[in-house]
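step=predict obj=Elongation factor-like GTPase 1 n=669
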Amino acid sequence: MEIKKTIITGVVAHVDHGKTTLIDSLVATQGRISKTLAGDLRYMDSREDEQERGITLKLSAITLLNNEVEHIIIDTPGHADLEFLVENNSVLSDCFLILIDAIEGITPRTYSLINYIAHDSAILVINKIDKIEEENDAYDTIFNVIKSANAMIGEELFSWENNNVILSCATLCFGINYNHAKNTLGTERCNLKGAIKFIYIIEKKIATEDVDGICGKWKIKNKNRKSILSTMMPLGDIVFDSIESTFSKQNLMKNIMSQKTPLRIEEQINEEDTLLFVSLALLKDPNLYTRENMMFIARLFQGSVSVGDELYNNGDRVVIEEMFLFGIGSYKKVDTVTGSKLICVRGKLKKNTLLCSKSNISYKYLEKHTPFYKTKLILKDENMLNNLKSLLRIIINTEQCLKLKVNKFNELEVLASGKVQVEKLLIDIKNSKIEVSKAESDLIFCEYAKRECFEEFEDEDFKMKIKIDGIFDKSPELNSNGNIFNIKSTENLSGTIESVLNIFVSCGPVIRESIKQTYFEVDVVEKHEDVDKDNLFRLLKNNIKETYLKTWPSITAYFYRCGISIGKQYVGRIYNGINRFRYILINEEYDASTAFYTINTFIPHFIYEDFLEVIGIRSRGTAYIKTIEHGFIFKLDFSDFVHQIKESKGLLTSEKIVDNPEKQRTLKR
């Protein structure tokens, strides 16, 4: 079959809105799976943890054919922790299917996804319409979803007559759009109300077992609900039709050039130039974590590329070593690719880069998302350290919004986009036969002085004046340790004093954590020329500690900033739920265009997972939470955590009574 054009479509949806089930329906049109299995198979979820958890954890693509059009469908994760992959997909896709649960409607999470898609290339799929029991309720429900989606975008984009709205039930593999309604019902009854009425007439006939006439007319052999509905309104055909009628070849490059995607090209591109965007890496064999098994998803925007070609990334030459096309559950090796296409490439490539036949194309890739979720992984066998490092060099290419570092204790410090990404990382490491475990305590605290203390010390060699005080407002004078050092001594002593201060603030005496937001003023005077300078270090450290302990030192936690977007009906429930936590309310905002409220808070990092769980329950899973790192905040008292932290570090001392009282002593746990 001659392929006249290729359309690349990204499918985005909130978790449980039916995205993966819809893709199963599309795969079923190719005869690779039966319609009976569509919806249950989760064909694109090839990872074992995806199947077990029932959520998509990666970008994946599949090539499907509809008449003379090649459709490349990209499946994206719906979980908020992996939203960065939806952002990345915005550079890869010509069109976008955005699924909405008809009952749940437009949620804040859905709104966040709409921000990542090209509005002029989007198709609204209102799914799970079978859950609306009454026909009288169906029109109002569906109309309100369309109205809300348009209000969020700020223009009348989605319209039944534009053929960019689909009513569907992915589990039953049926759907209907304007074109299908027009062909089936005629021009007088093909409006939105007519299409809804048609669905309910068929459903009523199925419920009353009055289907002989329908089955005869449509040549349906199996007289069950799924067979009847999917034959009369085949979802796969409907989706392809809406994509093909919405697609415009120019839209993606227009959005890139107008700075609407993370990829920002800063100059005009000539038509004869080859332009290839290199996205994230994937593993050809999902269980083999080697550089030889790694290839990069790439979007060819224009031009032609062949194996052996040299392209340029900001002047650096890159050789294309191998290329593959996406198939259905497989990859096809090719030598040359021309025109618009999604492919996999091998070579000495870097993720999120733009390759061009010209050597001087200027561009940027700007991510909205930054990692914030901190944890540590402990390597059980340090002999596997080099294996772990090799693995991480592969994983970092397959992920976005992830920072990994092996520290001096051979612990893996992880900065991720959320708990789900960390759990995915743990599975990848486990599959590589490397044993790691999460650190028992991920508590991140620091110490600080609560009040001013001034002390003077003197011995036979030195006079010392030490002043320590808390800094409760951020100051531009803070050093890299987050403190202020004011050293008033002579130059020959200032180096030693600064070294003592740096060591002291790196490990405070209360919980053995760093000291922040504290002012240290030190003045040391030599009493004679023959002073014992080697003794200065010890004396000064002890005197600083003595002074610091008189400032009533306390501790505080590391905070995240969370914006909780919710519908009006959940505002009171959310406040009632989060009031059990120690948090700081920043403000509450209302967006009239979406009718959503956003509660902005600072929360301690260690309650984050419980915080999310409560919000999820209280909002029935509809809330959208945008979280970023903030830092230490010195407004709340966390002194009640001192005992717990000391206990976890083995710093507590306790009295143990033995048989003979004279042998009573203090023992360290």
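step=describe
Residues 5-177+235-252 form a domain with the Rossmann fold fold (CATH 3.40.50.300).
step=end
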